[in-house]
């Protein structure tokens, strides 16, 4: 995605960092995945990889009594999360780190649970699974979401959209094989329902884009970028039967 302009990324983050989540997911799905981690310690040590602004990080803090290390490579997202942590009085339970999940500090070891919603693909799923295996204690859990194909021959615009961001995207069976090959046991998996795409992601995204259209009225470049970003939720309305997000829970 290096061919995209600095202005694109400026407006991209202006849209995405304002959202409750930076990808599909919701509290109900998070609770379901957490429920599959049946043998977690009472106060687990949790690592949230690719946390974004931390919508799911804060929910994990509500749903567990553990400590959380939240990692993201984008400093402004971490700053937003730090502000939310301070506002909620969670500084003793959640620590934040700006970092690349492919090159994490050696001090980040022996977690009971690694959580990652829609982020592992960014360094290649198999590479990410290898990293996670090394960060988990024996018996620890990995819970993550990943985009997968669900129908053959997607329309060209769907294929082009995923080829831009996730060219290696595979099928459910591909992800299950990668998990197994990486030394994990699959505990369970389920497909995110459509509301997990809309409630905390696409609906607030469309509202934010509409707000920014007013702010950037007369700015042809900015409006063009907003049009480009608006294509994603519209594509989902028309073609969501061709792809899905799957929530996987595995155990080392």
Describe this structure in words.
Helix content is 46%, strand content 21%. It has a domain at 27-193 and 244-251: Vaccinia Virus protein VP39 (Rossmann fold, 3-Layer(aba) Sandwich). The chain is globular, with a radius of gyration of 18 Å. The protein starts with 5 loop residues before the first helix and ends with a strand. The model has no long low-confidence stretch (mean pLDDT 95). α1 packs across α9 and α8 (195-215) packs antiparallel against α9. With 252 residues, the protein is an alpha/beta fold. It has helices at residues 6-16, 27-35, 55-63, 75-88, 125-135, 156-165, 172-181, 195-215, 220-239, and strands at residues 45-49, 67-72, 94-98, 111-117, 136-149, 185-191, 243-251.
With strands numbered from the N-terminus, the spatial order across the biggest sheet is 3-2-1-4-5-7-6
CATH homologous superfamily descriptor of the domain at 27-193 and 244-251: Vaccinia Virus protein VP39
Second-tier CATH architecture of the domain at 27-193 and 244-251: 3-Layer(aba) Sandwich
Overall structural class, as computed from helix and strand content, comes to: alpha/beta
Poorly predicted regions are: none
Main β sheet profile: 7 strands, mixed
Q: Fraction of residues in helices? A: 40-55%
Number of helical regions = 9
According to CATH, the fold-level topology of the domain at 27-193 and 244-251 is: Rossmann fold
Q: What spatial form do the alpha-carbon principal axes imply? A: globular
**Order of SSEs, N→C?**
HHEHEHEEHEHHEHHE
C-alpha-based Rg, rounded: 18 Å
Percent of sequence in beta strands: 15-25%
Roughly what is the average pLDDT, rounded to an integer? 95
Record field, number of beta strands: 7
Q: What is the CA–CA distance across the termini?
A: 33 Å
What is the CATH first-level class name of the domain at 27-193 and 244-251?
Alpha Beta
């Amino acid at each position: 995605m290096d061919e995209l302009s600095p202005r694109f990324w400026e407006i991209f983050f202006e849209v995405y960092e304002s959202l409750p989540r930076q990808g599909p997911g919701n509290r109900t799905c998070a609770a379901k995945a957490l429920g599959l981690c049946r043998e977690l310690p009472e106060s687990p040590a949790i690592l949230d990889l690719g946390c974004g602004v931390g919508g799911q990080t804060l929910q994990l803090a509500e749903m567990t009594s553990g400590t959380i290390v939240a990692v993201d490579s984008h400093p402004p997202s971490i700053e937003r999360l730090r502000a939310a942590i301070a506002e909620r009085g969670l500084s003793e339970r959640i620590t934040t780190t700006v970092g690349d999940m492919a090159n994490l500090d050696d001090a980040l070891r022996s977690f009971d649970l690694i959580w990652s919603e829609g982020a592992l693909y960014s360094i290649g799923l198999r590479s990410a699974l290898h990293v996670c295996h090394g960060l988990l204690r024996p018996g620890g859990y990995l819970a993550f979401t990943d985009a997968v194909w669900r129908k053959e021959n997607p329309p060209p615009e769907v294929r082009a959209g995923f080829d831009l961001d996730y060219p290696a995207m595979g099928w459910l069976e591909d992800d299950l094989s990668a998990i197994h090959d990486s030394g994990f046991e699959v505990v369970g998996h389920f497909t995110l329902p459509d509301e997990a795409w809309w409630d905390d992601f696409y609906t607030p995204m469309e509202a934010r884009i509409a707000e920014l259209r007013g702010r950037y009225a007369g700015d042809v470049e900015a409006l063009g970028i907003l049009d480009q970003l608006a294509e994603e939720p519209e594509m989902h309305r028309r073609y969501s039967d061709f792809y899905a997000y799957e929530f996987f829970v595995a155990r080392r």
